[in-house]
Amino acid sequence: AQSVAQPEDQVNVAEGNPLTVKCTYSVSGNPYLFWYVQYPNRGLQFLLKYITGDNLVKGSYGFEAEFNKSQTSFHLKKPSALVSDSALYFCAVRDITGRRALTFGSGTRLQVQP
Amino acid sequence: GAGVSQSPSNKVTEKGKDVELRCDPISGHTALYWYRQRLGQGLEFLIYFQGNSAPDKSGLPSDRFSAERTGESVSTLTIQRTQQEDSAVYLCASSLGGTDSSEQYFGPGTRLTVT
What we know:
The complex is a heterodimer.
Chain A: E1 3-5, E2 10-14, E3 19-21, E4 24-26, E5 31-38, E6 44-50, E7 56-58, E8 64-68, E9 73-78, E10 87-95, E11 103-104, E12 108-113
Parallel strand pairs in A: 2-12
Antiparallel strand pairs in A: 1-4, 3-9, 5-6, 5-10, 7-8, 8-9, 10-11, 10-12
Chain B: E1 5-7, E2 10-13, E3 19-24, E4 31-37, E5 43-50, E6 65-69, E7 75-79, E8 88-95, E9 105-106, E10 110-114
Parallel strand pairs in B: 2-10
Antiparallel strand pairs in B: 1-3, 3-7, 4-5, 4-8, 6-7, 8-9, 8-10
């Protein structure tokens, strides 16, 4: 079985400050990890993914995420937050030997204050 | 290019009625997924199609739920005898499917309300 935990329902950060949205996962084998963002009244948009290789993955809109195998984490980060980054963020995982469908976390709402 | 499209965008139905939701994947994407998102929750996997292989139905919550896909094109999700707990946003996604690591592209969803 695979699972994802996003321990924070909401993260508040001031514009211009760095942001981190936390994600930990559990799979029986090796993971493929993804971050998606959901803006109000819009579908989920792909941000970035970790497949293999460098633990630091860079994605859209200046976001990056760091894969940490020993801590089974894949935290999303951005050096300088923008008000327009305010949205709902989902972490997702699949076991590379398991079913193709993703298992999603419950989501973290990011609120960036001007 | 065109993304994943879903119809209708909103559907209100009475308890006990059947509903049919439609998904048009991105052209050339062989894999298609259906998920359900209840209010304030994450996405819940329902069913997965890959080319002409037998679908993975392991996420369907009951036998009232079924889905079909013709080849590598349109898919329909049918919910029979709808219940109030079926109220949710139903999301469709597609991916290239040829590689295990390909990301999924999501449609805007169908918001289903069962009264």
